[in-house]
Inverse folding.
């Protein structure tokens, strides 16, 4: 007897649709006026464009975009040309599209390692990263048999830069900065990191997976975010997720190199088997054509002006939230440059505040160092800043009066659960959960 999803007999389409609807109803809504965890909503019209394009190309394997499906190859070229322009890539730059930010970061580390080895470096190589850098970089060094030197939490930006400088040595092959990092919305000082990288002859990668498709348009709007792209001498590579503020269906990211030669360190070309040439630009083999078509279609639909308008709206909504929270004497952590920010109220447990907000249906995230509530703003949050501030004020008052107590919850980005197979007749259980 078969268990799990397969079962013995099939399910009719109407029954299956009902089952799927019931399953989806158990999930949080991925966007909405009370959802402040990572979602990238620009309007139902953009969502419709992204979904229709994905569905139209859902069954086409992008692996064959240079053979069987030439339209996908053309989409890839168009998307990369757009990104070269957005990030001011110089003549001779190149890039690849990947399955997501993690693959882009793994490949950035991969290039740094293999290029260093090609230039004669030996021994155990390492990368040096700020405290707020994405954990995918730790994953990359584990897979590539390297060391990662992650800065401990520092009181000031100056202190962290000093730590990063002292961590660099003759086996360092990569320094990383984020634009911005996930925990906070403040862009790392990429210009200063670039000077540090050049002084020590190491590569600098900019992780712009979060901000890469919003910061350029913020600059066009006159907001003057910090520079983070190839206009800064010393930036070797840059990654950006198109399924974030490129508003495409998941999963698609890009890795752009200052020098086209870098692409030789990410690609695989193999011919020693009966089926002829096998070539991939990065780790992935099969790639979903729908994700690429979705990214291309959203770019065509919005154009530069459309991206600017959606970006303008997000920043205006964010600014209103910050204004309303400051009226409660909330402290805004750092200097947010992008769409997300963190806030804290004095004299109370801010992780408890985050937990209580989520219990009230305002689904927020949090950070632990420092303890703060994190909001990720999208177009779905238009018109709710005052309502949010009201509930924050009410919950904060209750906490201070002792009316809301209990343990605060640790911050969680994502979890892992392994499904273990037990003896037949026994109930399966989940193990190794974190």
């Amino acid at each position: 007897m078969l268990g799990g999803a397969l079962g013995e007999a099939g399910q009719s389409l109407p029954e299956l649709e009902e089952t799927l609807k019931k399953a989806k109803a158990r999930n949080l809504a991925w966007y909405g006026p009370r959802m402040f965890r990572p979602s990238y909503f620009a309007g139902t019209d953009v969502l419709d464009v992204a979904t229709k394009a994905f569905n139209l190309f859902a069954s086409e394997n992008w692996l064959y975009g240079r053979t069987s499906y030439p339209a996908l190859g053309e989409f890839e070229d168009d998307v990369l040309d757009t990104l070269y322009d957005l990030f001011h890539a110089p003549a001779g730059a190149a890039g690849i599209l990947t399955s997501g930010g993690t693959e882009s970061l793994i490949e950035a580390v991969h290039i740094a390692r293999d290029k260093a080895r090609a230039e004669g470096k030996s021994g155990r190589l390492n990368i040096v990263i700020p405290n707020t850098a994405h954990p995918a970089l730790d994953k990359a060094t584990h897979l590539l048999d390297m060391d990662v030197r992650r800065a401990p939490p520092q009181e000031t930006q100056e202190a962290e830069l000093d730590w990063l400088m002292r961590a660099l040595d003759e086996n360092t092959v990569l320094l990383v900065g984020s634009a911005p990092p996930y925990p906070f919305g403040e862009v790392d000082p990429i210009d200063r990191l670039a000077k540090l990288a050049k002084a020590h002859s190491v590569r600098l990668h900019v992780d712009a997976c979060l901000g890469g498709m919003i910061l350029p348009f913020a600059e066009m709007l006159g907001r003057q975010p910090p520079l983070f792209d190839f206009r800064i001498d010393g930036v070797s590579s840059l990654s950006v997720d198109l399924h974030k503020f490129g508003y495409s269906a998941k999963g698609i990211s890009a890795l752009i190199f200052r020098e086209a030669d870098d692409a030789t360190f990410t690609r695989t070309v193999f011919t020693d088997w009966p089926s002829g040439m096998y070539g991939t630009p990065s780790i992935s083999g099969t790639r979903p054509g729908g994700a690429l078509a979705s990214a291309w279609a959203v770019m065509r639909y919005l154009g530069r002006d459309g991206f600017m308008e959606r970006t303008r709206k997000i920043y205006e909504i964010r600014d209103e939230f910050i204004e309303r929270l400051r009226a409660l004497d909330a402290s805004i952590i750092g200097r947010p440059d992008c769409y997300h920010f963190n806030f804290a109220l004095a004299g109370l447990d801010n992780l408890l505040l985050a937990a209580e907000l989520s219990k009230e249906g305002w689904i927020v995230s949090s950070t632990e160092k420092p303890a703060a509530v994190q909001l990720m703003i999208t177009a779905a949050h238009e018109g709710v800043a005052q309502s949010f501030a009201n509930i924050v004020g009410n919950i904060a008052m209750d906490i201070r009066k002792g009316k809301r107590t209990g343990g605060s919850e640790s911050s969680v980005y994502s979890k892992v659960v392994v499904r273990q197979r037990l003896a037949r007749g026994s109930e399966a259980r989940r193990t190794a959960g974190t």
